[in-house]
Amino acid sequence: MSSSMPTFRALFSRDAEVYADAPGRVNLIGEHTDYNGGYVLPAAVPQRTRVELAARPDGTVRLWSAQSQGEVASYTLGEERRDGTWTDYVKGMTRALAQHGALGGFDMRVDSDVPVGSGLSSSAALEIAAGRALRERFHLRLTDLQLAMAGQRAENELVGAPVGIMDQMASVFADTATALFVDTRTLAYARVQLPASAAVVVIDSGISHRNAGGAYAERRAECEQAASRLGVRQLRDVGIADLHRVSQLPSPLDRRARHIVTENQRVLDTVDAFGRGVLAAAGRLCNESHVSMRDDFEISVPEIDRLVAIAQATDGVYGARLTGGGFGGSVVVLADAAQARTAAAHIVNQYAATTGNAGRLLVQPEG
Ligand code: ADP
Ligand code: MG
User: Fold this and answer.
1) 129-144, pLDDT tens digit by residue?
2) What is the CATH number of domain 196-363?
3) Where in the sequence numbering do the catalytic residues fall?
């Protein structure tokens, strides 16, 4: 949080009427499966985006964020148009939420400690925090599930990012104490308890994924082509038993589809491993997921591979993998709770010593 930043009153000459927040997330396993109708297993992170809001008597929206280091931006409700700035996420929300009730103009102040572009989904945290504030202030009639769907629509339609629904589901429903299993086809979800001896550590590689938009859209298109050639609606409909058919696809569709099919199975197997309390098995699945993202889906970068390798070789670590959309961002480490803090410090030091990059510890157990 940025305490030296202007308050709501300093920005808008009055006080806020409502306050809402929403967390970022870390995905434990199930990468790029959401837009294929598959399974994901994220958890909330402690970092949150906070929104203060007051209604205006006209149709004007005025926005300010502590993270954008800019002036107050503005637009008119009903005239939401993409301009490539952060305000597109809020415009996307007002456009999507207009279907759920009568919005009025408003002033909004945003502040967040969710790192931007590190793979912890600052974008969904912004969408959901803004959506919660708008729902409350304008008495919109929408469920939490519809709120998540509105966030995805904001990102798809106004921002122009063809993302699945994992990030918004996680920001709405996940907590930091459990993982959230989501079937992204049915949108059914369940909280999954991690064994008490498990700890989740997240380390930012320092390589921002900010310019990964084109590659993300390309992967999504490849998945859709693979599904169409296999004669299924989505790759979700292909199981491990059908991998021989997947291997007959032309390159690189064979590898792209193999990642999705095996990753879906790994999510199910991880939920099972957590349920049985077998962290060694969950760690192996985590490591296999990384290999699949690196070699089949090709969304890793050398620095991330290095960080993952260092983590995997560290005492007290069960497994490590790239987390988030890829091409930079963070690594999630499944560690033994008693050794997690020591392991995390060791990984960050080794990463700095061998690559010269400053990794940043984003999440580790308290204590
Ligand atoms: P992430 O993995 O962090 O979600 P994205 O590229 O999807 O990365 O979203 C990051 C973008 O979301 C930022 O470039 C910015 O436009 C917007 N954003 C997220 N959080 C904030 C914030 N607190 N203030 C302003 N913009 C934000
Ligand atoms: Mg995002």
Assistant:
1) 999 999 999 999 999 9
2) 3.30.70.890
3) 167
